[in-house]
Amino acid sequence: MKKILVSALVLSAGIAVGGGAAIGTSMAISGDATMFAPDMAFVSTGEILTPLVFPDGRLAGYVKIEGQIEVPSSQTEDVTKRLPILLNAVNMRTFRTPMTSGPDGMLPNVESFRKLLLDAAVETYGRDIVTRAVVTQASPV
After folding, report:
1. pLDDT of 14 over the 90 cut
2. Cα 11 from chain centroid?
C-alpha cells in the first residue's frame, strides 16, 4: 500500500513539474515571456571630461566621453535627478584607472571606461536598477 501511494505521489509531482516546464518553454518560444521583463530605457550621462592615465600613473591627456546607462523606464526620472552623484563616482575612479591605448597613449580604452561607468552606476543606483552601461562617444581633447 505504501509503495503504491509513494508511486502515485511521485507521478503527480512529475506531471506538475513537467507541465510547468512545458508552459514556460512555450511562453519563451512564443515571445510572451517578455511581458515579465520591465520596460527599459537609456539615460544619457552627457559629456564627461576624464583624464587619460598611463598604467604607471602618468597623465597622457584628457578625453571627452559620453555614455548611457540602461535602467527601468519607471526609474529614469530618479536616475536623472541623481546624475551628479554618478558623475562624482566616475570622477573618483578615472584618475586611478589606466585608460590609455595606442602607441602615444592618446586613444581611450573604451572597454575600461564602460566597465568604470557600470561600476560607478551600480554603486550610485544599485544592481537592481542598472542593467548595463554603454559608451556612445569618445574623443581626445
Report:
1. no
2. 42
Average pLDDT of span 108-114: 91
What's residue 141's pLDDT? Answer: 84
For 135, which DSSP code?
E
CA distance 19 to 1: 27
76 CB-near residues (< 8 Å, 6+ apart):
41, 43
Sequence-separated (6 or more) residues with CB below 8 Å from residue 74: 38, 39
The neighbour count for residue 30, using CB atoms within 10 Å, is: 9
pLDDT in tens, 37-96: 679 999 999 999 999 888 888 888 899 999 999 999 999 999 999 999 999 999 999 888
Question: Do the Cβ atoms of 71 and 125 come closer than 8 Å?
Answer: yes
Tell me how long the chain is: 141
DSSP 66: E
